């Protein structure tokens, strides 16, 4: 499940993901916010992941499409999680994503919000 976070600074879209992610999560929650942000000029994206039980094949496809369709609009992506393997994967492959990418532990969420907004 993915839910949109309220109270983000201007220009930042934020989400909290938990459990198993589905294609509907992307289509109904992430994509509308992303299209709006890209239309305004740039995407500053914050994702908080407390627990993760995988993603459906459709969700993986939506995830890939979301990144590619708005490639030039991505400015910063902040991943906030204590899930160690996600932090490592982001460190290894973050250079492949559009824009700047940085990870933060859950305890430093406010710092992540400030960084992604900067």
UniProtKB/TrEMBL annotation:
Name the record gives this protein: STAS/SEC14 domain-containing protein
Superkingdom, taxonomy of origin: Bacteria
Stretches that traverse the bilayer: none
Lineage: Bacteria, Bacillati, Actinomycetota, Actinomycetes, Kitasatosporales
